[in-house]
Amino acid sequence: MPGIPALIGIAPSPPEAPTMGYGAQAGPFDSVRLQYLYPIPELVSEIQGPTEEDIDFSVYLHLPQLPDDPGIEGVPLAILLHAFKNPSIDSYTDWIDHLVGKGMAVAYIQYPTDVRPDEAETFTLVKEDGMSNWPHHVPRMHALQSAMDLLQERIDDTTRDEVVNQTLGDMKILPQHLWIGGHSLGGAYSLQVLQMAQNKQWGNQTLVVDTEMAAARPVQEEWLPNFTTLPENTLVHLVISEDDMTVSKCESAHHIDLFDSVDDNHTLLIYIPSDRYGFPRLVATHYLPANEAHDTLADWAMYRRIDAQADWVVAHSRGDLNTADFAYANLVNTPLLSDMGKWSDGTPVLPLQIYSNPSESALFASCF
Asked: H or E element: which one contains 109?
């Protein structure tokens, strides 16, 4: 029985989740959640499949409940995208809570993944340089553009609704300070949505990009992003897991090339190793970002980073350079980022592996 050594105290146990600071319980702020259905373009709705027919595709906007008169102009914006065929918000509430709990407005965008374009019957799949030619990308991009346009309306000072006004009072939502990311296909698509955001002048002062186990992004020319004008305050984390059996590590190894204009120490490919030293084993799978797989490994490898990322964006939006500097030290290539705690016998858990130039690493030799 694999659990017997742990039960009788022979096998060391994993580190507990942090009890304070980054990676601890989400907070300090609670939130209000609003749901806005957005119009699905006809070119998308006419080719939707049946597996998502129970979904009312929406933008879920989460607003932090801040103290009265907090003395700030407003709150930054975060945009989060889900994985393939997993639009349910219930899989990502932990991620959302860690973002909104730091004082951000968080938009969770559902988009249709079950689309069935005619070209799907005849095309030949080509995957290269982190991109693929799936024709399904195009209708999904049109749906996401519609969602982004609705989001713009719902966060604008002049067109937002009364619930937003009641929750935020005189505070604004500040999309110029932006966090954007996603899981799996949503990680890949967050790169396209970042381009849509740039076109709206969002994320032009502070920007965090966080993709977790990102899939291949669209190769279609209309949807190729250009990130040559990102702000100086940009941090990028492209994260992969050792035991991901769904998405190749090579996708993210190529996505990093999109950020050539960003300082190397601000653009990191982060590899989460599995550690089977003790019991339960810490296995880094594709599903680590989902609530269903939220374990100690996720607390240390992911939620600590998410907390620090949110802190960094919020601090810059408030001009709080002390907090920004503290968060920054946890987000660049230092032991503060890579440390994963210790097993109960004092043995360090295998640290995160950090790469700025994956093409130069033997781990990614097969990708290039």
From this structure: strand 105-109
